[in-house]
Amino acid sequence: MNDSKLMNRAADNIRILAASMVEKANSGHPGGAMGGADFINVLFSEFLVYDPQNPKWEGRDRFFLDPGHMSPMLYSVLALSGKYTLAELAQFRQWGSPTPGHPEVDIMRGVENTSGPLGQGHTYAVGAAIAAKFLKARFNEVMDQTIYAYISDGGIQEEISQGAGRVAGTLGLDNLIMFYDSNDVQLSTNTDEVTTENVAMKYEAWDWKVITINGNDPDAIRKALNEAKAEKNRPTLIIGKTTMGKGARRADGSSYEADCATHGAPLGGDAYVNTIKNLGGNPEDPFVIFTEVAELYAKRREDLKKIVAERYAVKAEWAKANPEKAAKLAEFFAGKAPKVNWAAIEQKAGGATRAGSATVLGALATQVENMIVASADLSNSDKTDGFLKKTHAFKKGDFSGAFFQAGVSELTMACVCIGMSLHGGVIAACGTFFVFSDYMKPALRMAALMEQPVKFIWTHDAFRVGEDGPTHEPVEQEAQVRLLEKLKNHKGHNSMLVLRPADVEETTIAWKLAMENIYTPTALILSRQNITNLPEGTHYEDAEKGAYIIAGADANPDVILVASGSEVSTLVAGAELLRKDGIKLRIVSVPSEGLFRNQSKEYQESILPSGAKIFGLTAGLPVNLQGLVGANGKVFGLESFGYSAPYKVLDEKLGFTADNVYKQVKEML
After folding, report:
1. Per the residue annotation, which of 88, 158, 410, 506 is the catalytic one?
2. What is the pLDDT of residues 219-265, one digit of tens each?
3. Is 473 a catalytic residue?
4. In angstroms, rounded to a whole number, what is the distance separating the alpha carbons of residues 462 and 18?
C-alpha cells in the first residue's frame, strides 16, 4: 500500500499536467480533471489490471470514462503509465494529435471508449460488464475481470443513466464498479440549482451497493475499491465527494476551488501560475513527471508483470485442460466474421421481411455462439424472438443464455450493445420498431464514429404500420439513418451499412452482409406486412452490390424503376400494367445506396446508366431516392406524416399501388 503523501503528490502531478494541457491549448476543462485526479491515480497505480506489453489482452480490466471533457485527467494518468509522451500531452486538442478534446477509442493507448454525449460512456461499461459475464459463463476463470466506470454530475442527470442503473442492478452486475465524481458544480450552475435528488437512495433502489466517501482522499478511495471488489451480488457505486478545481488559486492567491469558472475554461494568467506553484510544479516547465511519481508507476508496471504472468499461467493450464474452449475463446476475440451456412437457410415465400429476419436469427442462434441479441420489450413483434426461441434471456446469476431483454429503453439498449462490442469477444445486435430509432440516434452516431459492428434491427418500416397512426409510422427515419451511409468515418469508409431488403430472400442476403460487416454498424430495416417475393430467376446474390436488376428486365428499357424494401414488389405489379402499353423497362432493387456507390463506375453505369429515365418509389421522403434518380427522373414518395387506417387502405389513399405506378410513369414519359 502506498503512503498518502506519495499518492497526493501523484494526484497533484496529474492536476498540474491536466491544467497545463488546457492552458497551452487555450481550450478545455481543467476543473473536473483536477478534482478527479485522486480517484484515477489510485485506480491506475493500485487496482486496474492490464498487460502493459499486450494492451489487447482479453482478460484485462476495462476503464470507461463517461465525461469526455475530463480527457486531460485520462491522458495524464496514461502518460504516467507510459502510454503517452509529455510532448503528446502538450499537443492537446491540436490537429493530428493523439490527445483530442474528447477521448477517442484506442486500445493500444489504453482508451477503451470514445466519450460522446454525457451518460453514454458509463452505459458502455454496463454493456462491457454484461459481455464479461457472458464470456465468464463460458470460459470461467480466464475471463475474470472488473469493469470500471467514471461518471460525473452531468452524466447522472442525463436520462440514459436511469436505464444503465436499472439494467445493471436488475442483472446483478457485481463485476461493475462505478465512481461518481460528485463535486456539486457543473458548467453554468451549481448542481443544487437543477436537482435535489438523493442519488445514493436512487441507486440503492436499483439494487446497487452504494459507498459514499471523500473522493479526494486516497485512503478512502482504496478502502471503497476493496469493498466494491469484495461485493458478489450487486454493482457498486462509489460516490466520491470531490472538489472541482482542487488546488486551484486565483490571481490574488485566494482559493479558486469549487468554482464554475474552472469547469470549462483555462485557469488563465496569474491564476494558472499560482495554481501550478500551489501544486508543487514549475509554471515555466509544467510538463514534467515527478521522480517519485515516475517510481510509483514504474513499480506498478513491475507489479502488473507479476499479476499478468500469474493470470497467463492460469490461462495456459486452463487451455491445456480445455483445448476446444481455448480455440473458441481465441476465435471469439479474433474479430472475424463468423462461419454461417447461409445456403441452408430456407425462407417461407411471401412473408414479411421481419419474419425473414426471424428465420435467419434462428439459424444464427445455433451457429454463432458468441452472438448476443437484445430487444426493447418487442421481441415477439420485432421478431428477434427467432433468436430467443433457441436460447434464453440473461438473468441475475445466469448468463448462460444469449438474449438481453432491455425493457422499454431504446437508447440504453443501443449503448449497452455498443459496450458489449467495445469489450470484444461478442457480436451484439438489438431490435425495436423503426420509428423508435429516433431515441437511438446519439448511439448510432457513436457506434459509427467508433466503428463498432453492432447490428441494429428495425421493423415496422413505413406508414404500413397502419392502425397505430402517425406517431408509430416512420416516414423521415430512413432519410436520417441513410445519412450515416453517406457520412464517411476517419478511415474513409461509409460510417454505417444500411439495408432495406425487398423480400424474405433478400433479407437472408442482408443478414449475410450484416454479419460479414466487421468494420462498421449495420442497420436492417424490415417490414411488418407480408411482401410478394421478387420474380422467379432473380439473382439475389447480386444484392451484395447494393443495387441490382431483378429478373424480367427488358433490353434497352424506356424507363428504369427503382425502389428498396416493399416498394419493389409494388413496382413489379405496376410494371405489368406498363408493359401492356408496350413500355420496356427494368426494375432495380436498391437495398443499400451506400454499398452501390462503393461499386465500380462501370457497374453503377450498367445498372443506372447516366441519362436514363428513372422513376423511384419510396414509402419515405423522396430524398431517399433522389440521388439515384437524378435530374431526368422522378420520385414518388411520402412528404407528410402518415395516418391511422389499415395499411391496404393507406396504400390506396397515399398512392402506393400498381395503378399509381402506371399513372406516374406514364406522366413522366
Report:
1. 410
2. 999 999 999 999 999 999 999 999 999 999 999 999 999 999 999 99
3. no
4. 50
